[in-house]
Specification:
The protein is α/β, with parallel strands linked by helices. Helices cover 48% and strands 15% of the residues. Bound molecules: BIS(adenosine)-5'-pentaphosphate and magnesium ion.
Length: 222
């Protein structure tokens, strides 16, 4: 089972991806998180990706696809996995289908209007140490500026500056139609209203997951 989360920047892919991962015991694979980690560690991959990411552009398809291919070979992906932020253009869709054609798929586009996105991203903070995501308005940490999970300091993402967010939105709009058309043709596409509380959005996703995979999913944990 492969859950693919599409949606503009700030739509809640990471937030919902974590909730799906916990409830259904599936690993969440976020290409954005992997790339940010590589930049932090100054690996060759990080150095290659840094300029594109800070400008809000896509990193090279083959580089990103090879990261995903490596990750899904691991044992924890055998029963399935959640993709957050991949694929991002039709070429990546094809690369994904070439690397693993064994998984039954479900694809969600989390839909949120642009003005909400700008508000969410300017108030988002992430932990500089473990990457946990907060929002100073909707989901603040217990102590301002400090991660609840690891005590690390909270920072703003480099690409959450307004001008970069606008470029990320432009890139999303330019690429998404072809991806959606492809998944609609396969009959696996669902658009989800991404507004409401975290839990409300999750319930919309969860009900579709349970409906489609009721005989196959790991028993959800209460
Ligand atoms: P990536 O890290 O994937 O960023 P993105 O797609 O722009 O999405 P975000 O992470 O900004 O938002 P999200 O949808 O995860 O929202 P979140 O849950 O955090 O990619 C970054 C860059 O990496 C790309 O621009 C590109 O350069 C590169 N890259 C990555 N993948 C690539 C690929 N496949 N190919 C090429 N390049 C790639 O939520 C946002 C905020 O809103 C949070 O503060 C959260 O708390 C809050 N929030 C969430 N849900 C709600 C709600 N229901 N109500 C109120 N607030 C909410
Ligand atoms: Mg994210």
């Amino acid at each position: 089972m492969r859950v693919i989360l599409l949606g503009p920047p700030g739509s809640g892919k990471g937030t919902q991806g974590e909730m799906i991962a916990k409830k259904f015991h599936l690993p969440r694979i976020s290409t954005g998180d992997i790339l940010r980690e590589a930049i932090k560690k100054e690996t060759p991959l990080g150095l290659a990706a840094k300029a594109e990411m800070s400008a809000g552009h896509l990193v090279n398809d083959e580089i990103v696809a090879s990261l995903v291919a490596e990750r899904i070979k691991k044992a924890d992906c055998k029963q399935g996995y959640i993709l957050d932020g991949f694929p991002r253009n039709i070429n990546q869709v094809r690369l994904l289908e070439k690397m693993d054609n064994s998984q039954e798929e479900i694809v969600f586009e989390i839909s949120v209007p642009e003005e909400v996105i700008l508000d969410r991203l300017t108030s988002r903070r992430i932990c500089s140490s473990c990457g946990a995501v907060y929002n100073i308005i909707t989901s603040p940490p217990q102590r301002p500026g400090i991660c609840d999970l690891c005590g690390g300091s909270l920072i703003q993402r480099d690409d959450d500056r307004a001008e970069v967010v606008r470029e990320r939105l432009r890139v999303y709009e330019a690429e998404i139609k072809e991806i959606i058309d492809h998944y609609k043709e396969k009959g696996v596409f669902y658009r989800i209203n991404g507004q409401g509380t975290f839990e409300e959005v999750f319930q919309r996703i969860e009900s579709l997951l349970v409906l489609k995979f009721k005989t196959k999913i790991n028993q959800p944990k209460e």
